[in-house]
Specification:
Layout lengths: L1 E2 L3 E7 L11 E7 L13 H5 L14 E8 L5 E14 L3 H6 L15 E12 L4 H16 L6 H10 L1 E2 L6 E4 L7 E4 L12 H9 L1 H12 L3 E6 L2 H14 L8 E3 L16 E6 L3 H10 L4 E5 L4 E3 L13 H13 L2 H4 L14 H20 L6 E5 L5 E4 L1 H8 L5 H8 L1 H10 L3 E2 L3 H8 L1 H7 L3 H19 L33 H17 L10 E2 L21 H15 L3 H14 L3 H13 L6 E3 L1 H16 L9 H9 L2 E6 L2 E4 L13 H24 L1 H11 L7 H17 L5 H30 L8 H6 L15 H13 L8 H21 L4 H31 L19 E10 L19 E8 L2 E8 L9 E6 L3 E10 L6 E9 L3 E7 L5 H15 L8 H4 L8 H4 L7 H23 L41 H12 L1 H9 L16 E4 L15 E4 L4 H8 L9 E5 L6 E5 L4 H7 L12 H18 L19 H4 L2 H18 L55 H7 L15 H4 L5 E6 L14 E6 L4 H15 L12 H8 ...
Parallel strand pairs: 10-12, 10-13, 11-12, 19-20, 32-35, 33-34, 33-35
Antiparallel strand pairs: 1-7, 2-3, 2-6, 4-5, 5-6, 8-9, 13-14, 15-16, 17-18, 20-21, 22-23, 22-28, 23-24, 24-25, 26-27, 27-28, 29-30, 31-32, 36-37, 38-39, 38-44, 39-40, 40-41, 42-43, 43-44
Helix pairs in contact: 3-4, 4-18, 5-6, 5-7, 5-11, 9-11, 11-17, 19-20, 19-21, 20-22, 21-23, 24-25, 24-26, 24-27, 27-30, 27-31, 29-30, 29-31, 30-31, 39-40, 42-43, 42-47, 45-46, 47-48, 47-51, 48-49, 48-51, 51-52
Length: 1920
């Protein structure tokens, strides 16, 4: 029973204290005057009566009523019902107002009213929430006062304060206050269920479903919620509603439904709250909330909005619950929604009344909590039963079994205060139960079955709603209320007659109260028996998970594997176990397999011990580690919990009395550092022990059974857990019946049980937290154990722990220097744990102190034990690791550091890890070797399934681009190891982790050596120079002994001295030339050439051969011998013959002006310059160009005689002068001026050299321009003009581009690259002589500088700026004689002159930085360092971002433009950057495309030697080959060129003599430093070092090739690896590749790798490796039992595909070789064989004069032009076929193939037909057309099924050209040749087919063929 009202208070306006703008209230009277003992009077009531502040008003307002809620210090809620009315009083401000200033509140000029009204409040304070009753009672008191009823107010108030009603139980109580009134109070049946009236329904109406769900989740996850409304009662209702839907959780933070304005700063509290504030204070609250980092959620009830600040993240309910809840709510609130679309909606589906709807909504939330918390009782640990039950919740197990560990919402709810309260309230197993307990216990199954059907859910919700409604309204409503209301607004307008509320007589009221109290004492106490009972637990959680399918599918097979493996281990069948191990480790990813493992291991533990031998111990530890590795730190599946007793059971003997337990090897897991894990484990064990305690007391029988399961954790099965709670319930029931002694005995027993467990756990924790090697302190540092706070729901003092730990630190006798920090942190951690669990489980203080003194000793003892174990474990023989495999080394390559054991970790490439199928080859274990040339990893995969295979990864040390330290966790043994990630520009990545046995200082030595080798001091330190010098300085590192003998030291000193002397000698005197005999075969053709040096006199200095010193003369003859000169002779660019024999009219000469490299260091010694330019001019001109690289001729077109020149860009000062108009007069002849004139002369000389320019009049002006160079093919040029123009436009930037680097122009706007396609050319046009065109589309932009260039080339007018016709249009119709391709950025300010004969094409160049960055990104794309699933990091995305393809596109585009210009007879000068990067790329590509010679082996070599080596591409600098160039970084300009060649090779596979492999070989070795070819930056540097000519000199060591070219020659003789079988060139073929990005392919050089043998570019290594492997594979004795399969598996990233699956021709050549060997014949060179076959074939083809159908046709060169350009493409790896019908203008010239010229189709007649239709017989027949039409070959198909003879244009044709129905055929007879029949065909090959309509004349290829046709048709007819 409880008082209906505790206090009655009258609060009025305080007239004395009104200061400032706000008045105050004060309590006029309160009854009773004295506080109740059980319920003190709440403070601050006067604030809550008028939350908006006390104010006087000019007009009387209506009485108001609301209920405030106050919470006292014991978190009891007091409901304050406030009834406020207004009383008139004389305006206290009137007399004052005249004297003082007008008050700020009033508007001046208004007349103050004579009377104002002051509020007065009647307040009822109660602990019960009966709003309506309070409203009635206070209303009655007011009515008695206003209507002056005869009843004294004291009596009414006395009765009110003495009224006592039951709190719950469902009874009705009628009360009267003695004023003729009667009220019925209805109590709820169960007071644990909240009473909500209709407030929940109102809340949903005000805010809507989604908003309320947000608020609901926010309240549960402890956010701050603020309600705003202008109605106080609504605020209270909304807050009440929010609390009601949170049931069964109770809100435990600040709860103030109505906050007075004076207390608004409460809002800035940091804790969560639910507060209501009147909208009157909206602006103030927003200011306050704004200042507090905006983490308050504001719900505006009047506006229906919920505002969630950006910084607040509300975790919502997990799906599918959220969806189901929303559906259910909308069905309650808006039942019409479902029927809205029905054709025949029911007559009315009104929602229920508000009161019912309110309960239905609450039922939805109750159902929701039933879903969320089902099975929670299975995760309770009962740790004390007496004197009070202490219950803990095992959060991790609950989340794990629900498979919701990732769910944010549930995690937060379970960690929250509300849930902690829920557990302490509902945890005890013996208590009264309510609706929620019933739901959890009995209806979970129903919820699960119905959750997918909303209507069943609705029925369930309606049932629950009914129970909730019944709880509040158990009886039908009784109309017994009779309450007096005041007469309608008595004198509302006439305030005079309303008396003031009187002062009441407190004595009278007190008498009533005393009287009632006396009565209560005499009355017998009302004892209402509480219905306590055992709380049912509901169904266990185990099977709930299955419906989500979250349990990992662990097939029985996997569990079987785990069981077998463990059996093998314990049966000591180690080999079997080893085979199964990888499968087991994979299976252990699944939960079921992990549980299975723990169960199996449990069976092998006897009396808590299992002693194993070393190998068994190893395997068991590995399995445990693997199991723990996938456990989260929460251990939600309880796996670590079950393993905990096992890790202290399995052990091995190390020596006398020294045992190592498994725990010392499984410490590296986060779970051991998680305080919550230890707490849960502790509680679980305590529960088992307490259960055992009472079971023993009841009967000894069961105790043994339960002991067996003690150690197992929370997941140890339902039976046991149920037992504990049942037992506790039973004990709680018996407790009151026990005597005092029995009670205290039980309490003491339980306490000591907990205490003993605490000691046990202190030991356990020290086992798992102290590392084996206490000096390393690995675990603690990593997780910062000392600071891991226990995130638990209970609050614990750390005082004792703190003080004890400190005392230990200072006074302990064990001041062990090295391990004290480890010990301290472990002691602190255990202390904190002990404090927490002991306080929670009620351990006495004495015991707690004892524990704190014990812990340091426990830890210290354990440290001492561990030290012994650690010492002994070091003595163990190391586990047998795979033996280190030695790499094969090149001749002259030596080891710098011997193999260090490492693990090769998988990187971002998936092929080797088995992710794309196949076994995982990585990670692998082996060793890393550092040699003078390479970095090599060689080892075997960790996965035993492929353990036999050898994995090799290596790259040349010179190609290392980035080295980075990493730390790696190896999955096997969990240790974090230091490692290195090494990236090379040969597209290889070595990610290695050093094995434990490798000391860290050794790893450091390795790094230093690597750096030393990578960046030698000088080029002479590179492998190409040091190879074969066995006394290298590096050897001293190899011999490990410290004091190296003096002998070797002195030897090195002498050697280096010699070297330096040698170098000085070189600089003084050039090397003598090698003798003619030793010259390599390549130069032998030179013998016939007459060689002598030009003797022409020069104005500047005498450079006759006679004046050259003898040493120089030798150099000269070497220079002459340089291959370039042969090329110049071939091109007709000048010879070095005697001046008498040379005709003066040759336009060019070979100048020796640079013979001493004085004019330009980076140019070759001999240069081609115009005949008319003297050397002195050249010296002057060279100064205008960067690096003195003046324009020189490097190639001439043999047809148009146009020349290609190269130079660097101009110096800025020379630019303007260069473009000055020739007739502009200058003020005075300056140096610059004269130079620019000489430059002009130079240009003019080049132009004059062109035959198209020399004409009779001799005037060198453009006016006399003749079109001779166009006459060759006029039509074609007209056709091609627009093409060049378009090319030009795309090569030059557009107006909108800022001149600068690429990235802003063509690359910056990728979308543009393919925007404008070329106009198609009509089919009738004739092909221009030779030439293949891969069209170029581009960004079609005009030049920003001189638009006429592009326009004129496209023969368009160039309009003037003013819109008039362009001047000198007739001049502009012609092309310029010379185009200068220059850099946009340098050509600013140049003025074009209409009479000049050269024109500048400004383009944007990619600068070196761009290439460098692009390459870095390309490497990362092709060889990513780690696998990623991010969509932004996929291969194609990264490739695109690298912009590598854009750069290739740009270079190719410019090259094609230049080719086109040269082909149409204009000369071109490429003058970009410093003339050694992009210029070289463009110039070389142009020559490659224009001149077939450069597409052969000799030609390509020559091209590279001439353009790249002689013209000074800075190989050493760009390749960062020495220490000096290290900072500049690696820039692969040459690689870019090779990639461009590769792209062209792909498009024209029949034009190149060399294969793709040749290009890859060069790409690899140009960075490898194995050869000297690509070292140094220019010929000058090579001569200085004496490298240039020694390559051809005598060879001391024939093994060591110094030139890559010699090596290729040598290899090419042995094997066809470099040869392209499809090579069948056409004479004078000009290639025009497609260059837009969609046509470019990623070069497989970047992505392929061969793990079996490493890179295949060091040929002899690969060959020796293969021979060794073959030798191993030959078995000792032949195995006759099983037939050996011929099949073998080929792994893309492991095997070398070209070797395992060679292409057909290579295979045939190999077979030939092996047959020759078998027959003992001398082997024939492959090239001879090949040439013979080709010769034979040509002969056959000539004889037969018809296409041959065998595959060797591919080799013949008589393929017609048209087909070749379509391109038959055979990939390297075998004869597959892909037809590339990318025709641009080569539309077929004739429509039918003539017998002698096979069409493409004939090539493919050997392949199977792909058509699905039935073809009984098919072939080519000539058919005579209709009258006067010729005979034409057609492809005929005889179809038996359709009974017809069809014919097609060609074999490929899908469109049938005609059909002859066999049904209409009358006869088939041999025929005779008619007019126009094909010649050379015998008569018997003709036959006629007669149908009902006409006669068809046919002719087969020969008579047998004709006979076949006749028979086939005949048989068809007879069949029909």
């Amino acid at each position: 029973m409880a008082r209906l009202a505790d206090y009655f208070v009258v609060v009025g306006y305080d007239l004395d204290k009104r200061g400032g703008s706000e008045g105050q209230g004060h309590i006029l009277q309160r009854f009773p005057e004295k506080d109740w003992e059980d319920n003190p009077f709440p403070q601050g009531i006067e604030l809550f009566c008028q939350p908006n502040g006390w104010q006087l008003v000019p007009e009387r307002e209506r009485p108001s009523f609301f209920v405030s809620v106050l919470t006292d210090i014991n978190s009891e809620r007091h409901y304050c019902a406030c009834f406020t009315f207004w009383e008139g009083l004389d305006n206290p401000q009137l007399p004052k107002a005249e004297a003082s200033e007008v008050d700020e509140d009033e508007v001046p000029g208004l007349v103050q009213p004579a009377q104002v009204f002051a509020p007065k409040s009647l307040v009822l304070v109660s602990r019960l929430d009966h709003t309506e009753v309070f409203r009635n009672c206070l209303g009655l008191i007011y009515a008695v006062h206003v209507d002056s009823l005869s009843v004294p107010l004291e009596t009414v108030i006395g009765n009110l304060l003495t009224c006592v009603i039951p709190v719950a139980g469902g009874s009705q109580r009628t009360i009267t206050l003695g004023a003729g009134d009667r009220q019925v109070i209805q109590t709820p049946i169960n007071d644990s269920l909240p009473v909500s009236g209709s407030s929940v329904a109102h809340l949903f109406r005000q805010l809507g479903i989604v908003n309320v769900l947000y608020l609901f989740c926010a309240a549960l996850t402890e956010h701050k919620i603020l309600f705003l409304s202008s109605s106080y009662q609504r605020l209270t209702d909304a807050c009440r509603a929010l609390l009601a839907i949170m049931f069964p959780l109770k809100y435990s933070f600040t709860y103030v439904p109505i906050l007075p304005g004076k207390l608004l700063e409460v809002l800035s509290t940091p804790t969560p709250f639910i507060i209501g504030v009147n909208s009157f204070f909206r602006s103030e609250t927003q200011e306050l909330v704004g200042s507090m980092t905006l983490d308050v959620i504001i719900a505006d009830l009047d506006g229906g909005t919920v505002t969630i600040p950006e910084c607040v993240h509300i975790s919502l309910l997990p799906d599918p619950l959220l969806q189901q809840t929303q559906t259910a709510l909308s069905m309650v609130l808006d039942p019409e929604l479902e029927m809205a679309d029905h054709a025949f909606p029911p007559s009315s589906t009104q929602p229920s009344t508000l009161k019912i709807q309110d309960k239905e909504i609450r039922a939805v939330f109750l159902w929701l909590f039933g879903q969320l918390f089902n099975g929670y009782r299975w995760c309770l640990h009962i740790i004390r039963i007496h004197p009070e039950p202490v219950i803990r919740f095992h959060k991790a197990a609950f989340l794990g079994q629900r498979a919701l560990t990732e769910d944010d919402f549930l995690m937060k709810v379970l960690d929250g205060m509300a849930f902690a309260g829920f557990i302490s309230e509902r945890g005890p197993p013996y208590r009264p139960t309510d609706l929620f307990d019933d739901l959890i216990a009995n209806q979970v199954e129903r919820i699960r079955q119905e959750e997918c059907s909303p209507h069943k859910v609705m029925n369930h919700i309606k049932e629950l709603a009914e129970q909730l409604f019944k709880n509040e309204n158990p009886y039908p409503a009784v109309a017994m209320h009779k309450v007096q209301r005041p007469a309608e607004s008595p004198g509302h307008n006439d305030p005079k007659n309303l008396a003031m509320f009187p002062l009441l007589d407190d004595v009278t009221v007190q008498l009533f109260i005393d009287h009632a109290a006396a009565k209560l004492q005499t009355a017998p106490p009302v004892v209402k028996a509480e219905l306590k009972g055992m709380v049912p637990s509901g169904p266990p959680l185990g099977d709930i998970v299955d419906r989500h399918g979250h349990v990992l599918a662990n097939s029985a097979r996997r569990l079987e594997v785990v069981r077998n493996c463990i059996t093998y281990i314990f049966d000591n069948k180690m080999l079997e176990a080893k085979k199964l191990m990888p499968a087991v480790l994979r299976a252990l990813k699944g939960r079921a397999a992990r549980v299975c493992l723990t169960q199996e291991l449990n069976q092998h533990v006897l009396q808590n011990r299992a002693v194993l031998d070393d190998q068994q111990f190893d395997y068991i530890v590995r399995m445990m580690n693997c199991t723990l590795q996938d456990c989260s730190h929460m251990d939600e599946h309880g796996i670590a919990a079950i393993l905990l007793p096992l890790v202290t059971a399995f052990c091995r003997k190390l020596g006398a009395g020294i045992t190592q337990f498994a725990y010392s090897c499984v410490q590296e897991h986060m779970v051991w550092t998680n305080m919550q894990f230890w707490e849960a484990m502790f509680y679980s064990d305590v529960q088992n022990h307490i259960r055992a305690l009472y079971l023993e007391a009841d009967g000894g029988e069961q105790s043994i059974a339960s002991r067996g399961q003690q150690e197992s954790g929370p997941a140890a099965g339902g039976q046991e857990l149920l037992g504990a709670l049942e037992l506790a319930s039973e004990q709680s029931r018996l407790w009151p019946t026990l005597s005092k002694e029995q009670q205290s005995e039980r309490v003491q027993k339980e306490e000591s049980t907990v205490f003993s467990q605490a000691i046990h756990y202190a030991n356990r924790m020290s086992y798992l937290l102290l590392p084996l090697d206490t000096s390393k302190n690995r675990l603690l540092n990593r997780s910062g154990i000392g600071d891991v706070e226990s995130v638990s729901n209970s609050y614990v003092t750390n005082s004792i722990a703190g003080s004890m730990a400190e005392s230990y630190d200072t006074e302990s006798g064990f001041e062990d220097a090295e391990s004290s920090d480890v010990a301290n942190s472990v002691v602190r951690f255990i202390n904190r744990f002990v404090d927490k669990v002991c306080n929670e489980s009620g351990v006495t203080n004495e015991h707690l102190k004892a524990l704190h003194t014990m812990i340091p000793d426990i830890v210290q003892m354990h440290i001492e034990t561990l030290d012994a174990v650690h010492r002994e474990s070091k003595r163990l023989p190391p586990i047998q690791k795979p033996k280190l495999l030695r790499p094969i080394l090149l001749a002259g390559e030596e080891l710098v550091m011997d193999g260090m054991r490492v693990h090769l970790i998988s990187d971002g490439r998936e092929e080797a890890t088995g992710a794309l199928g196949g076994p995982p080859l990585l990670p692998a274990e082996g060793a890393i070797f550092l040699t003078t040339y390479r970095l090599i990893f060689k080892g075997t995969p960790n996965d035993p399934l492929v353990g036999e295979q050898v994995v090799t990864r290596s790259f040349p040390i010179a190609s290392l681009t980035k080295e980075k330290r990493i730390s790696v966790s190896l999955s096997m043994d969990q240790f974090i190891q230091e490692g290195l990630q090494l990236r090379s520009c040969t597209f290889q990545l070595l990610k290695i982790a050093f094995d434990e046995e490798v000391a860290s200082d050794l790893a450091e030595v390795f790094r230093k050596h690597m750096h030393k080798l990578r960046y030698p001091q000088h080029v002479q330190g590179t492998f190409a120079f040091t190879v074969g010098q066995s006394g290298k300085t590096l050897v001293e590192h190899k011999t490990k002994d410290k004091n190296q003998s003096i002998k070797t030291l002195s030897k090195n000193l002498v050697k280096s001295a010699k070297r330096t002397i040698g170098r000085q000698y070189v600089t003084r005197k050039k090397y003598s030339p090698p003798t003619w005999e030793n010259r390599s075969s390549l130069q032998s053709e030179l013998d016939e050439d007459e060689l002598s040096v030009s003797e022409e006199l020069d104005q500047s200095s005498l450079t006759l051969s006679s004046t050259i010193r003898s040493s120089d003369r030798q150099t000269m003859s070497n220079v002459v011998e340089r291959a370039c000169c042969r090329d110049y002779q071939r091109l007709g660019l000048g010879t070095l013959s005697n001046s008498l024999t040379r005709s003066k009219n040759e336009p060019f000469r070979i100048s020796t002006v640079n013979r001493m490299y004085t004019v330009c260091r980076s140019y070759p010694g001999l240069l081609i310059v115009p005949q008319s330019i003297p050397d002195s001019t050249i010296q002057r001109i060279s100064r205008c160009y960067r690096q003195n690289r003046f324009p020189v001729v490097c190639w001439r077109n043999s047809r148009t005689k146009a020349v290609l020149l190269r130079s660097a860009g101009l110096h800025a000062k020379g630019v303007v002068g260069f473009f000055k108009s020739p007739n502009a007069t200058s003020a005075g002849p300056s140096q610059v001026d004269s130079t620019s004139l000489e430059q002009e002369k130079y240009m003019q000389a080049i132009i004059s050299s062109m035959p198209s320019y020399c004409e009779p009049s001799g005037r060198n002006t453009l006016g006399g321009f003749t079109s001779t160079h166009m006459s060759t093919s006029d039509s074609s040029d007209k056709l091609r003009q627009p093409k060049i123009g378009a090319l030009m436009k795309q090569v030059m930037g557009g107006k909108e581009d800022v001149p600068g680097t690429f990235s802003r122009g063509a690359l910056g706007q990728r979308a543009r690259v393919i925007s404008l396609s070329q106009p198609r050319v009509s089919g009738k046009a004739r092909n221009p002589p030779g030439g293949k065109w891969g069209s170029i589309r581009g960004s079609g932009r005009l030049s920003a500088y001189n638009p006429e260039v592009g326009n004129r080339l496209s023969s368009k007018e160039s309009p003037q700026p003013n819109g008039g016709p362009s001047e000198a249009l007739f001049l502009r119709q012609q092309r310029a004689y010379l185009y200068i391709i220059g850099d946009k950025t340098q050509l600013k300010g140049g003025k074009q002159d209409s009479f000049q004969q050269w024109e500048v094409v400004p383009i944007e160049v990619c600068d070196v930085r761009q290439v460098k960055n692009s390459f870095k990104k390309l490497i990362k794309a092709c060889v990513p360092s780690s696998a990623t699933s991010e969509p932004s990091m996929t291969f194609h995305r990264c490739l695109e971002e690298s912009e590598w393809m854009c750069l290739l596109h740009r270079v190719l585009q410019v090259s094609v433009l230049v080719v086109e210009l040269l082909d149409t007879g204009s000369s071109v000068m490429v003058s970009l950057e410093d003339g050694w990067d992009v210029t070289t790329q463009v110039v070389s590509l142009v020559q490659l495309l224009s001149d077939p010679y450069y597409r052969t082996f000799d030609g390509f070599r020559l091209l590279v030697e001439k353009e790249w080596l002689s013209f000074g591409h800075r190989f050493s600098h760009r390749g960062a080959q020495t220490l000096a160039s290290q900072s500049s970084g690696f820039t692969p300009v040459f690689l870019q060129f090779l990639d461009c060649v590769h792209q062209i090779h792909l498009q024209f596979p029949m034009e190149f003599e060399f294969s793709q492999y040749y290009l890859k070989f060069l790409a690899y070795h140009y960075v490898s430093n194995r050869f000297r070819t690509f070292l140094l930056d220019s010929d000058y540097e090579r001569i200085e070092l004496g490298v240039l000519y020694e390559e051809k000199g005598e060879r001391k060591n024939p093994q060591v090739c110094k030139s890559v070219w010699d090596y290729i020659d040598r290899l090419n003789k042995k094997t066809p690896i470099f040869f392209n079988y499809m090579f069948s060139p056409e004479d004078e073929e000009v290639l025009r590749p497609y260059s837009f990005i969609s046509n470019l392919k990623v070069w497989d050089f970047y992505t392929e790798e061969t793990l079996s043998e490493g890179p295949s570019y060091d040929w002899e290594l690969v060959q020796r490796g293969r021979q060794e492997r073959l030798a191993e594979e030959v078995p000792d004795k032949p195995d006759t039992t099983t037939p050996k399969s011929q099949r073998r598996i080929v792994w893309p990233c492991y095997d070398s595909r070209s070797r395992v699956v060679p292409d057909a021709i290579t295979k045939l050549l190999q077979d030939l070789q092996s047959l020759e060997a078998e027959l003992g014949l001398p082997p024939e060179k492959w090239k001879d064989t090949w040439d013979k076959i080709k010769a034979n074939q040509r002969a056959e083809a000539k004889l037969e004069n018809r296409p041959s159908f065998n595959s060797s046709l591919l080799m013949s060169s008589n393929l017609s032009h048209q087909r070749r350009s379509q391109g038959v493409y055979l990939p390297e790896s075998g004869v597959g076929s892909s037809i590339n019908l990318a025709m641009d203008r080569e539309t077929s010239t004739t429509s039918t193939p003539v017998a002698g010229r096979p069409s493409t189709s004939t090539l493919y007649s050997q392949f199977q037909s792909t058509e699905s239709e039935n073809r009984s017989f098919e072939g080519i027949l000539f058919k005579k057309g209709a009258l006067l039409k010729p005979w034409k070959p057609r492809w005929f198909v005889l179809d038996k099924t359709k009974h017809q003879l069809r014919y097609y244009e060609t074999r490929q044709d899908k469109e049938c050209k005609g059909v002859i129905e066999l049904a209409e055929v009358e006869s088939v007879i041999p025929g005779t040749p008619t007019m126009g029949a094909p010649k050379n065909i015998e008569e018997k090959a003709f036959f006629d087919l007669k149908t009902t309509k006409r006669v068809y004349n046919f002719c087969a290829q020969d008579s047998p063929n004709a006979q076949l046709w006749l028979d086939s048709i005949q048989s068809c007819l007879s069949d029909a």
